[in-house]
Amino acid sequence: MPSRKKNSPVQTSPRTPRTSPRKSPRTSTGTFTILSISIALISAVVYFLNSHLERFYIFSPSELHDLSLRAISTHGNDTAAVVAFIAGEMNEKFPGGYVNLDQEWIFNNAGGAMGAMYILHASVTEYLIIFGTAVGTEGHTGRHTADDYFHILKGTQLAYTPGSFEPEVYPQGSVHHLERGTVKQYKMDEACFALEYARGWIPPMLFFGFADGLTSTLDVPTLWRMTWVTGKQMILNLVRGKF
Ligand SMILES: *[C@@H]1O[C@H](CO)[C@@H](O)[C@H](O)[C@H]1NC(C)=O
Question: Where are the transmembrane segments (predicted)?
Fold first, then answer.
């Protein structure tokens, strides 16, 4: 490589062993430039998508609240029927597989709290699940890259923000909106179930969803089901053109 020899003083130095040539400064600069350009491009794409996330959403918090209220007024505390009502109507409104009708309940441990969920929809920018527990739980909400709307279908959820001295109380039929990037302590004293809708960037939230399972419960079959159902939904939705 004569051109390399000419441009690289390191290579021609008699003290450098020829068997293990060092990377020339030129190559490092090239790598650095490519890396910088890549980071800048990715940042620009993320920034652009972030400011246009709205156009990828198919669900709306006000419609989901209305649906929750109608489900409760039709079926009261028969929560199984409330869930079936919600899944059925969502599927009618969004035909074509956007709503998962295979009601599989999967345990979820996150932020110290424990409950189970039925994943109705998962894509890159939205998820819709029924989350709850029949025995109560308490924990950290997690700091998320998405807005979270927790529609209480049964029971009551309490929430606490540092600095306040009274709990926020979310009874049946109310919505607890946890704004993107904010955190709270939450508690369900007794049985509580909710229709949870998150919109924003969903993949980063999965780290929170998996953390307790990977570092505490080590419940591999549960982690596997969550990975399988979430992954399948996200990929099938992408194939459908739902980002
Ligand atoms: C559900 O049960 C609770 C507790 O018994 C009660 O306060 C509430 O009114 C019931 N909700 C409906 C919709 O029947």
Answer: 30-49
Nearest CA to ligand 1 atom 14: 76
Beta bridge partners of 159: 168, 186
Q: Residue 218 pLDDT > 80, yes or no?
A: yes
The pTM of this model reads: 0.85
Work out the pLDDT band at 1, boundaries 50, 70, 90. very low
Instruction: Please give the structure tokens belonging to residue 174.
Output: 């109310």
For residue range 126-145, list pLDDT tens digits in order. Answer: 999 999 999 999 999 999 99
CATH class for the domain made up of 59-239: mainly beta
Q: Say if ligand 1 is within 6 A of residue 152 CB.
A: no
Q: For ligand 1, say whether the CB of 172 is within 6 Å of any of its atoms.
A: yes
- Which atom in ligand 1 lies closest to the alpha carbon of residue 154? 1
- Which long-range contacts link 217-220 to residues 24+ away (Cβ below 8 Å)? 217/109, 219/107, 219/109
- Choose one of 78, 79, 172, 189 to mutate for the ligand 1 pocket test, by most ligand atoms within 8 angstroms of C-beta: 172
Residue range(s) of every CATH 2.60.120.10 domain in the chain? 59-239
